Amino acid sequence: MPDTAMLTVDAALDAMLSALSPLAPVRRPLADCGGAILAEPLVAQWTQPPFAASAMDGYAVRSADLASGSEALRLVGEAAAGHAFDGLVGPGKAVRISTGAPVPDGADQVVMQEKASREGDAVRLTDTARPMANIRPAGTDFSHGDRLLEAGRCLSPEAVALAAAARVAALHIHPRPRVAIVATGDELVEPGEPAGPSQIVNSVAPGLVELVRIWGGEPVYLGIARDRPGAVRDALRPGRDCDLTVTVGGASVGGHDHLRAVFQADGGRFAFERIAARPGKPTWFGTLEGHPLLGLPGNPVSALVMARLFLRPALARLGGSVANAVFAQAPLAVALEANDWRETYLRATRDEAGRAAPLSNQDSSALSALVQADCLIRRPAGASALAAGEPVEILPLLDRI
Ligand SMILES: Nc1nc2c(c(=O)[nH]1)N[C@H]1C(S)=C(S)[C@@H](COP(=O)(O)OP(=O)(O)OC[C@H]3O[C@@H](n4cnc5c(N)ncnc54)[C@H](O)[C@@H]3O)O[C@H]1N2
Ligand code: MOO
Fold first, then answer.
1. Cα 77 to ligand 1 centroid, rounded to whole Å
2. What percent of the chain has pLDDT over 70?
3. Assembly ipTM
């Protein structure tokens, strides 16, 4: 049954986002800006190219000299990339030029070398007059003072290259949020460690570390807190230096789930305590002396699906942008039963025709099914039964390779 501490996914998301604010911008050298969100527009500090440049290896000439279509011109020098030809290209003259070199004064066409034959300092060109052919005028790409990117844009690798081309050596960016990750539970061992008879491997934390990285944050893994209040408190403490703490497990109602009790005893305030979602019901969020904590359930699928719905938008908000889950539509390959009061995310695959079908294993501990899925089908709370062919909302798992 619904209860008052249990919010819908949308209401919980709103509650979480309104408790988070973007981190203060910092100025960083360009080499440290990749993947960050711009806190100021990117403004070109010069014109690119800064001079009219050749787009081909060949000969810089006056187009008027090519009227007959097969002219012999006299070679008077060379313009190489990084080394301009200082003289003038007069009538009947040509300058050897390489791609990227400044086009010398007087020339208004570059003839590619495939259309040239040379004998000593005579060069015969088989090209017609085409003023400005193979020349990139100054500012072909952008001009000094152009606003190349607005604040709020992510600095993709291509955008870093653009900033470099625009002679911008440092930028104000929203820093990458530092995210402390704490796993909880006596049953957990780290990958590669020996496991006792009742133990399993901590699989969620390594997955979260990767997600935080992919989503533009800096993961700070703090290890496994054992099931004692003191151990939980000790494990959480170093996370205060980060911008957000994400905990895994200990979120439900079991006698060994100490996380919520420690959080509350230390003065933490919940923004929400549970959500009406399947998987992921025990997901919670709150702040402790201003420090935000997102509590993910221990079941690996629950944790990683909820990370997509909550951790990603949280990271985006701290980093100065928005990245709420974006749903698409797909027709169903099979019929679906009516849904109950919990918004449900079904692990699903799409066939060649793009029709989505849930995988048979929907257990919230089954990582193999999550990895097999290429999308999640979203079933709203109270959704009625659907026939094959009817449309459903899907969340593509885009960062899957
Ligand atoms: N009586 C009830 N029991 C449970 C309820 C409930 O409402 N009433 N909710 C269930 C749901 S839904 C979920 S989800 C789980 C989540 O519980 P917790 O967040 O407290 O997680 P744990 O109890 O610590 O662990 C659950 C499960 O996941 C395994 N686990 C935990 N951490 C990891 C990790 N880092 N890597 C891999 N696996 C992990 C753990 O061993 C358990 O098997 O509670 C239900 N119970
Ligand atoms: O919400 Mo639990 O995540 O259904 O397994």
1. 77
2. 97
3. 0.97
